[in-house]
């Protein structure tokens, strides 16, 4: 298997693995009609943008590795979800 393909499938390297798979499944399901999968593509773009910003921030702060591991990302997302829940409960 090509090295780049392995990187894309590695959960510690690719933070948007689920979004990648969902986009691919949608394309397969709708016979590669991109218009039917635009929401999946947007989710993927949003995911990449979010984690890219996290990576840039960690780089600026000198935190290694630049990209959090899969376990760290799960913790970060859980904390983010909890804070969003707290915000919506306060409204």
TrEMBL record:
Coiled coil: none annotated. GO terms for cellular component: mitochondrial intermembrane space. InterPro entries: COX23 (IPR051040), Cys_alpha_HP_mot_SF (IPR009069). Transmembrane segments: none annotated. Keywords: Disulfide bond, Mitochondrion. It is found in: Mitochondrion intermembrane space. The keyword tRNA processing does not apply. The keyword Mitochondrion applies. SUPFAM superfamilies: Cysteine alpha-hairpin motif. One of its GO terms (biological process) is mitochondrial respiratory chain complex assembly. Belongs to the CHCHD7 family. This is Coiled-coil-helix-coiled-coil-helix domain-containing protein 7. The lineage of its organism: Eukaryota, Metazoa, Chordata, Craniata, Vertebrata.
């Amino acid at each position: 298997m090509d090295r780049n393909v392995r990187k894309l499938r590695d959960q510690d390297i690719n933070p948007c693995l689920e979004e990648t798979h969902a986009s691919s499944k949608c394309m397969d399901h709708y016979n590669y009609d991109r218009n039917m999968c635009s929401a999946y593509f947007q989710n993927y773009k949003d995911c990449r943008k979010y984690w890219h910003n996290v990576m840039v921030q960690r780089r600026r702060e000198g935190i290694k590795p630049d990209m959090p591991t899969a376990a760290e990302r799960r913790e970060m997302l859980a904390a983010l979800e909890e804070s969003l829940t707290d915000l919506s409960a306060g409204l």
